[in-house]
Specification:
EC number: 1.15.1.1
Structural class: mainly alpha
Radius of gyration: 24 Å
Bound molecules: fe (ii) ion
Distance between the termini: 71 Å
Number of strands: 3
Order of helices and strands: HHHHHHEEEHHH
Biased composition (Acidic residues): 293-303
Largest sheet: 3 strands, antiparallel
Protein name: superoxide dismutase
Helix content: 40-55%
CATH class of the domain at 65-259: Alpha Beta
Strand order of the largest sheet: 2-1-3
Keywords: Chloroplast, Iron, Metal-binding, Oxidoreductase, Plastid
Pfam families: Sod_Fe_C, Sod_Fe_N
Length: 303
Amino acid sequence: MHGTAATASLSSAFLPFQGFRGSLDSTFRLQWRKPKKAHRTLITAQIELKPPPYSLNSLEPHMSREILEYHWGKHHRGYVENLNRQIVGTELDGMTLEDIIIASYNKGDFLPSFNNAAQVWNHEFFWESMKPGGGGKPSGDLLYLIERDFGSYEKFVEEFKSAALTQFGSGWAWLAYKANRLDVGNAVNPCPSEEDKKLVVVKSPNAVNPLVWDYSPLLTIDVWEHAYYLDYQNRRADYISVFMDKLVNWEAVSYRLEIAKSLAAGREREEERRRIEEDEDRMADSEAIEMYLDSESEDSETD
Ligand SMILES: [Fe+2]
């Protein structure tokens, strides 16, 4: 997602999600070390402040220019700047943002950079979850899965709103795709089951996001007070309703779902390929043992 900041397409909001799978195994765990004193030429931390994909006044009257100027221009910017200061010269420097999140989540034993890294990712994802003239009802495969997994679109909205409303204090509510996930250290459910390959609504405190459970996020709403207080004061429920009715970018959510399903299918193929290879190796080993035993027995008969 980073490196092409302002011009990155919607697809780039999800593609880096593929990156951490290969680099972090289930035993991955980091010990936090203080940043090394960095020589000027070695400074590489450059997580960028990605702007929303629309002008700051284009969500009005549902989300004001003023709140976006604070929310994106100060809060989001602050997370980016803090993160770059924290990771420069450390082992996290140079990783993708997604890898930094998983590594610094550290199986629930957060490293200092986790909150800033996750908040940078969450805010980019949040901006891209909205669009001017959004809201309404999704269509196609997304609607089919929503109706299959929640009973109806209305029941999904009820569950999503409830998650957003009942997240105590600061945090986020999410629609996510929960696929079969194997051998994943952070996962809530690391084994495939009947419960997988489905849409779920989850909420998370502070900066935590579903990437750390290895789910594929599809939609999010920021329910930190800084996201709505200037426009809605303490009326979080009104803010959530307006978000669903007027702001959600369902095209973005549908696109993310296609990417998530494609990633899950790729993983399944990889698992199957690995399983077949292991079976073949086992078979070759047992044939070799049989041949050895046969030759031993022929030798003893000759003796
Ligand atoms: Fe926020």
